[in-house]
Amino acid sequence: MSHKPGTHLGGIRTLQDLRDRCHIDDDTGCWIWKLALDRGHPKVHFVAPDTGERKCMRGPRAAWYLRGGEDIANGRIVFRLACCPNRDCVNPTHVKEGTMKERGTQIRRSGVLRNLPQSIEAATRVARTHRAKLTLEQVREIRSSPETCAELARRFGIAHSQISAIRRGEAWKDIASNASVFTWRPAA
Description:
The chain is an alpha+beta fold. 37% of the residues lie in helices and 15% in strands. The model has no long low-confidence stretch (mean pLDDT 81).
């Protein structure tokens, strides 16, 4: 922090007061908020400079308000620019007022969400294997077993429909199966 610990700061009324409660990153120019968070985002309590009214806003919006002295219009939002890498940043030069469409355009141009569906899918796959009732070996055994779906369902303690979905490749489809879909059928 840029002030001595224990110093009474008297509340946030100006951009300098906001800056005094941040760690300044020399490389990026970010004002990294070090106080209250709301769902991981900076939560700023301040006194409106013009009215003296107490307000509470998320960091970027509070920085915008303190910079311009007025709140944003209905239907508009304040969001971080793509050049700002810190979600805890409250530097007013790193935020912009605009519409959701403008924010979406900025995100698309910056490429920050590029390949996100693949990474979400991979994370979901990992999470699923940690909470699954079956192991990879059991899935391979189900696919190669000559037993009926009902017998396997009783043995593994899962639904008949789940055994059927595993054999058809609809469940656990990312697991390579050495056997054909039809090898599980009992010999006639």
